[in-house]
């Protein structure tokens, strides 16, 4: 696996594959890799001839009171995992390569960025859209893969790609979970054992609400029950919401729906989401 830190080297590596007619996949990450990321890499290998993984802890998507300084950084372990998984190129730009002196551009996707996490983390999705647009221009992949755990992020990126006529496919990869159902996340390392045990309430609360709604129950009552389950487990709830799966606006009769939640336990903010499978109950 080639590891490159300068744009000129990244471009040279990718250009050689393009010249040979190879299809290139990009898996953007912030490192601290876990099996969720490795599922993206495996999906990338199936979707393309060459796989580029980027690791960049993007300061623009962290708010002033968020965990940028303490965000887990594990460059050596990450690099070994990626090499063992057969990744072709690791793109590891330093901050000054990504945002050189004088950098002044921000990409903002209105609507889908403004609700849910966007309302609780002002500026977060502008930071994500800006860095992802840069990564797409730097790597010029044929396909880029993102985890469905960050469902709103995926919706923002799909909107960005459609609006700017970017010529690449976006593939969402299903959330990977621990045996008890907790979604894999780099932030799970912050959970002390007691909070880790209680964190399972998040997927459980979503599952309870999903079954009630899918069976035709009152959505507001189901969401309230999920909030109560989370509070009883010690979570402070940012939101539990039922939305249209694509726009993240109000659900629309006959269109796919998604249940999304964000909540804090012991100072760690966790997010999760699941589809609402109304077909399961006919
Ligand atoms: O999902 C992430 O890890 C990040 O938000 C991303 C897409 C790599 C952009 O920094």
Brief rundown of the structure:
This protein is α/β, with parallel strands linked by helices and 282 residues long. 38% of the residues lie in helices and 20% in strands.
Give a structural overview.
- This protein has 282 residues and is α/β, with parallel strands linked by helices.
- It has two domains: 2-173, HUPs (Rossmann fold, 3-Layer(aba) Sandwich), CATH 3.40.50; 186-273, Pantoate--beta-alanine Ligase, Chain: A,domain 2 (2-Layer Sandwich).
- Helix content is 38%, strand content 20%.
- It has ten helices and nine strands.
- The strands form two sheets. It has a six-stranded parallel sheet, with helices on both faces. A three-stranded antiparallel sheet has the order 7-8-9, with helices on one face.
- It is globular.
- The N and C termini lie far apart (49 Å).
- Bound molecules: pantoate.
- Pantoate is lined by residues 28-30, 58, 61, 128, 131-132, 150, 153.
Spans of 5+ residues with little confidence (pLDDT < 50)?
none
Structural class: alpha/beta
Strand order in the largest sheet: 1-4-3-2-5-6
Q: What is the straight-line distance between the termini?
A: 49 Å
What number of structural domains do the residues give? 2
Order of helices and strands: EHEHEHEHHHEHEHHHEEE
Pfam families: Pantoate_ligase
GO molecular function: ATP binding; pantoate-beta-alanine ligase activity
Active site: 37
EC number: 6.3.2.1
